[in-house]
Design brief:
The chain is α+β, with helices and mostly antiparallel strands and 220 residues long. It has 2 domains: 122 residues, OB fold (Dihydrolipoamide Acetyltransferase, E2P); 57 residues, no CATH class. It contains 7 helices and 12 strands. α3 runs parallel beside α4. The longest helix has 24 residues. It starts with a helix and ends in a 5-residue tail after the last strand.
Length: 220
Amino acid sequence: MKKLNKMIWIYLLIFICLIIANGLKAQTIEGKLIGIDDGDTFTLLDDAHRQYKIRLNGIDCPEKAQDYGKVAKNFTYNFCTGKRVKVQVIGTDKYDRYLGDVTVNGSSLNQALVRNGLAWHYKKYSSDPVLAQLEVNARNEKLNIWSMANAMAPWDWRHRGELQEIGTLSYGNVFICNSSGSKTYHKKMCNGLSRCGKGISQVSESKALSMGKKACGYCY
């Protein structure tokens, strides 16, 4: 009997969690922008004067200290300020921000940022085909972040120190030591990089060649 009661409580808790999760996914928040952190994060005030920290779903804008970070922030500010902002909530992230698809007057802010080359499609968390195609278009047109030869994804930028140590930056296919005396480029985790004391960067092979570097004799 005790085992049966325990199972009933477990199923009841699962049922309650599902109800809460479905309610959250269906939640729509409307209000006005009252604060902005960067291009993909802002604070919304609803009609009941409740504040919500909103994180745009499926995209990642450059950080404020990155190239085009301030441009993306200003874009979001101008898109939303003085207008009715609608957020279709899909969940929360680990910082308890509300993840959502944001529209203003029927236009998607998430899509607009990617369309204008001011955000990456965050493929790790999103398989949205519309965002994927918008990024391809922006890349082809070399809009804003895509006008740079080696635009660093914000998820790499946030961890750039540790990534330089292990050589896993996401915008190239060969690895170089940042020392001014380095003359070669390498495949990932070549022993030749173990002696590098200035940090490791990842670049395209053509970029390495243009810097006067040659292929490492050990890993090539």
